[in-house]
Amino acid sequence: MVMALSSSSSLILNTTDYSPHKPLHSPSSSSSSFSSSHFPIKPLIHHSHNLPISQKWRRNVSFFTSFLKKPKDASTIKEELLEAIASLDRGADATPEDQQSVDQIARKLEAVNPTKAPLKSSLLDGKWELIYTTSQSILQTKRPKILRSVTNYQAINADTLRAQNMESLPFFNQVTADLTPLNTRKVAVKFDTFKIAGFIPVKAPDTARGELEITYLDEELRVSRGDKGNLFILKMVDPSYRIPA
């Protein structure tokens, strides 16, 4: 739920085939008393009940071991996700294919979310750094790179239902917001005050609102999805940080 702090109030908020036997041919000598016609050999038919015991065993083992494979745990999926976004400059360099791949991995992580009620969890408190998003207003991709914020942070106080988003240089803009729980993982967001350069207050318009759903939360990583369809991935950098009153 990191918010764009410039011209927008957007949120940041993965059988062996059996060939038929060839008929036995008799020797070319006409004196031979044996011929293939005396001993016709029927081709083997590919039915499971005719498979050799060893073949049936291998097939059954393969069938049942598929049920024994454990799904990937959260730590493995997190590593996969972090590797996928490492070279994407927080999403600014992501192609549509990259975005799709990251989204698929994020969905796998969301499926093993260990925190079912994140708004009731102390893990939510602290200062988070945005490491990936699909929000172009947050990434400021229409600006020259030198004028884009280098780092975006978001702080949340779950007990007071307050949020604060902060940009690093070159502008150090900030914005604060009130959070209203809609359920145990989704909030409505109402921005109240922007601070230009971190200290010049500007009241946010009443239309500066949004919603954010926290879809994955642990002590290291948070995944959220905004009401505009954007994906946000943040890492914890300071669990002791509190939003100034």
From TrEMBL:
It holds the Pfam family PAP_fibrillin. Residues 76-235 form the Plastid lipid-associated protein/fibrillin conserved domain. One of its GO terms (cellular component) is plastid. Keywords: Plastid, Transit peptide. Its main location: plastid. It comes from the Eukaryota. It is found in: Plastid. Belongs to the PAP/fibrillin family. This is Plastid-lipid-associated protein 4. It comes from Pisum sativum. The lineage of its organism: Eukaryota, Viridiplantae, Streptophyta, Embryophyta, Tracheophyta.
